[in-house]
């Protein structure tokens, strides 16, 4: 019989969450490095360089890879010869570990969990509760797999119950373009097949812990139908040309993972969950000898890539921004922002709309006239930082507010990540505004461009408060210009054709 002390479990959970907040899995980051080397799309290559540079900076600085430090997901395989020396539940112990990790003063992590989910959606303040799944197995150890799953990728999960005769690869390829770029490609597709509805989705989530081995699979060839399906989906998804950040390019996914389970003869349940450019997970064991010992990776394993803005990037003075300058920006053009911009996410936009509709007006210090808004919820600063990692959130969620912001506040443009929907693009076109993207998965790199930060409104909303940032050479790309042209439409379309031409030339 093995006895696990509660403190050992709590500390192991806390240590693991801190560890994965700043260390990418080495297999994933090396796969992204290989994608960078073969990428031919300039926009995608620049995004990959930012992701890789950000990853090394986060590993060196022990600060989060992404400002969205994720929903905590824990899978436990508990040996039946194990006892926990406590009267507390596993949920309570794991939540204590989460709390300890996310409130660590040396590396504060962003609290993103809200409760209740319906109603006032109050932030719990410490990122609890975790999603906990447990299985009793033979043995005298506890195997733990833990991940921090970002909201942008989790929101793109898909599920269907197909007919047994349906083509699963066709379903994936049909659904993936509709996921847009909010899941921050390049990433990994996790697919669960079989069981029941909830089992298929759990399988998809569990599959994302598997090592990245697509290169090895391609080299040796498939040995069973599941591996054949992995190869087919990998090739067909990348042939869509979506590319890094949805800008168009050769690599949309670096791997495809599939787990299966027996299912009813009348059913083919399928769950699909992507992992983003902030892929974060680790596995360890507890054997009763103390907390888990986690070995840091060597920075020599990281690709030797140091992103720098290109010589063609245009510097923009945000404090002198005019409609005429915004109208001159071209789709795909890289800009370096300098000066002041305001921030705002879902909750702030909701407050703004309520204030405008009531006739009360905006709070003091909140004036969007001839300015940009940055869709971001930053991590709190530590030590000498002015702000913690501060990468963009998915702009598509804010589409419903775009017309209101552009028509009623004097706003000239927005900065976020991922594509905009038709209504938002039409509002941008009508008001001759612009939408810019920063790279999702490069939050620590982006934060280095922020020289000053202060809360100007709605402080009670925590990370969803309105900040004013003063930035120097913050890198962004024009995603939708004043005419309504979107690179998230033109880029993948162009690269899907190019990829087909490359394939034909190689035959």
Could you characterize the architecture of this molecule?
With 507 residues, this protein is an alpha/beta fold. The chain folds into 3 domains: 1-150 and 280-306, no CATH class; 152-277, no CATH class; 314-491, fumarase. Helix content is 33%, strand content 23%. It has helices at 6-22, 26-38, 42-61, 90-102, 151-154, 168-175, 197-207, 214-220, 225-238, 323-328, 346-358, 402-408, 422-430, 443-447, 487-506, and strands at residues 2-4, 71-79, 82-84, 131-137, 142-149, 158-162, 187-195, 253-263, 268-275, 281-286, 314-317, 334-343, 372-374, 413-416, 434-437, 450-457, 466-480. The chain has a 5-stranded mixed β-barrel with strand order 12-13-14-15-17. The longest helix has 20 residues, at 42-61. The protein is globular. 49% of the residues are buried. The mean pLDDT is 96.
